[in-house]
Amino acid sequence: MPAPKLLAALPKPILFGLYGAAGGLLGALVFGELLWYLLRPPVATAAAPEPRVAVAAARDVEVFVDGRNTLPVQVARADFAGPVSVRLDDLPAGVTAAAVTIPADRTEGEVTLIGGRGAAAVGRPVRLVAEAAANGRTATGDATVNLKVWNPPKPQADIVFVLDITSSMQWAIDDLKNGIGKFGDALAKARIDYRLALVTFRDVAVSGEKVEVAEFRPGEVFTGDEAVFREKVGTFVAAGGGADVPESSLEAVAEATKMPLRKSATKVVLLITDAPPKVADQGGRHSDAAVPAAVQRAAQLVRAAEIDAVHLVVQRFDEDDYRPLARAGADKAGGRTFNLADVVRGDEGFDPILATFGTAVTEAARAKVPDSKPQVPARGDAPVLGVKSLQSGEQSAAGSEGKVVLRSGVWAGAVAALVCLALLAGQHHYLRGTRPAAGGVFAGLLGGLVVGFVGGAAGQGLYLFAPQGSVLGLVLQVLGWTLLGGLAGAGLSPFIPNLKWTLGLAGGAVGGAAGAAGYLAVSAAGGEVAGRLVGGLLLGFCIGLMVAVVEAAFRRAWLEVRFGARETITVTLGPEPVKIGGDAKLCTVWARGAAPLALRFFVRDGSVVCDDAVMKRETAAADGFSKEVGNVTVTVRTGSGAAPPAPPVPRPAAPARPEPARPKPADDDYDALPMLMSPPPAPAKEPPKPPAPPVPQAGVIAPSARPKPPVPTGPPKPAPPAAPKSPDACPTCGRVNPGKPKQRYCMVCDNTY
């Protein structure tokens, strides 16, 4: 009986998975949790009664001269709950950073660094300090951050405002004058080296009206001072424009393309008008038909001047006329178009448009100088106040690393000991139908304890080096469980016939990783105790499952041992002999009613060999080779993945032929006793020869010599012909045995034919 009747029909991997799960759950529940509690190290908060604080941040941060950057910081508190002040000390000259206070309900904040215009380019470590006051005491923690101050080249931007100053545009003049200050400040904070220019226009067809390029100083059409630009804009008054609606916007754009633009700068034009473009004929009258060609000529001038983008603030119904200008810039994204009516109706005036325009200018300028934007450092790892555990989220007191490693190793050893014992007992019962001996129990417990302790301690040791809450920490935590499972699988391999320790290691490692996944998932939802119990259960189940799966996946030859029509077990063949017989202690597979050692199967030179220990002879066993031993049928299988054949259908016995009644002799005490025979064989085509007359034995009175009762008279009946002999029958006793010629074995005669 390979397994209890309830589990006999289960596949071997599932059966062994259940054995391992039972061992893992019992190991974690009965021994693991008890030892876990008894070996508990002091917790982190009990080691130091004074309030403590720790701070962490990225190791490197940079700030530009005349620029700013932020440094994300994290704090951890122990034995108090209150605000924490964080500051940077030992900053170089010209660099400042205001202290920040992290509230009691938060653990993260940002320190802003400002590089002054006179700051020197330097790289040096600075001290990040966290301070907190609690219970009349001050807690302090610090960390080191590498600060780099440098002055990369600023992105350049030349911005030309093309402004309609006809009588309907006084509001635009005022909004541009009032909003240019915020616009310039935003560019300065972004470290953009910008210059501003202004081109105004009315209707050149009207006498006295023209396109005018503003000069901020004699001969200077650009300025980098927004105050000077604002003052210049304030000198213009909206007036004129003629009697018709169109204005000379295209001529103004043409003048903007002639400006002395810097070659390395981002060149941007912003056209602001409430009128469509005017194209006058020879008589000075506007021609709508000539507008598209005139706009295309202006777009050609934009491309020739290598202007990056032309942005538009126009009426919605004039967008189609001006669209070629927005697409003419070198920037593939094209210029943006703003609806003038939204500006007129809004309460914020020109500010939203200038803010959006400033962002577009900044992004375009930085794209030409990638190093012009400071890199905000990534958030650092959370600070750690104690020692973290592989099988728990609690933190023990600093200095208790040895106790934590011992605790994890003992817990893992207890679980692995019960897993190995359960799998060993299951393997023993699977093959022999009995419980393992005391020596096997001791070997399973000791082996599991050793490999579990080594795996758990090694995994905990690796986990101590993992940063708290990092991906590496999670990887090392899973690796610790994987190491535990792999060693348990390798330790179990000697008890499974012909299973290499490398395959046991691989199967156990997969089981350990699955146990880690179960622990992490359940502990996050149901607590750490439930997580450890489920982790132990999954660890045992997956080790048993994977060891059986790996054994089946990599075998080349194996035995199918049938205990009946419904129960079959498999045993992997290899150089180590698989013994079959009636001695459960001596043999790998126990066969009731067989000789103590009946058969040995093993692989030699790539071939399966059957060694008949009773007949003392060896036979080459190919795929399908079958033997009956006691109450089992053994069949050789080769080739990975072959499905077991259907159980043999018993041959129906031939009906017994009636024999003529014979008179019973008066005394049959001295008759020879007949030997038990198998059922009569099926009739053959040719009748057998008549049997020879019996030879009388010495000292025995033949039945014919004894007085017989009178026989009734009548015509004698002819004797029926004897049944023909089956070709499958034993030549000695006539018993029919299954198998191929020269491979059939008769247990009665102990003969192979």
Shape: elongated
Q: Report the radius of gyration as a whole number of Å.
A: 49 Å
CATH fold assignment of the largest domain: Rossmann fold
Poorly predicted runs are 640-651, 663-678, 695-706
The proportion of residues in beta strands is 15-25%
What is the subunit arrangement here?
single chain
CATH superfamily of the largest domain: von Willebrand factor, type A domain
* Overall number of strands: 28
- State the secondary-structure class: alpha+beta
Largest sheet: 6 strands, mixed
**Individual helix count:** 14
What is the number of independent domains? 4
Strand order, largest beta sheet: 12-11-10-13-14-15
Describe the structure.
The protein is of the alpha+beta class and 753 residues long. It has 4 domains: 12-41 and 400-553, no CATH class; 52-150, Immunoglobulins (Immunoglobulin-like), CATH 2.60.40.10; 156-368, Rossmann fold (3-Layer(aba) Sandwich); 557-638, Tumour Suppressor Smad4 (Sandwich), CATH 2.60.200. The chain has 14 helices and 28 strands. Strands 12-11-10-13-14-15 form a 6-stranded mixed β-sheet, sandwiched between helices. Strands 2-9-8-4-6 form a 5-stranded mixed β-sheet, with no helix packed on it. α3 (170-189) runs parallel beside α9 (351-368) and α13 (501-526) packs antiparallel against α14. The longest helix has 32 residues, at 401-432.
Q: Which features does this protein show?
A:
single chain, alpha+beta, Immunoglobulin-like, Rossmann fold, 4 domains, 6-stranded mixed beta sheet, 5-stranded mixed beta sheet, 28 strands, 33% helix, 22% strand, elongated
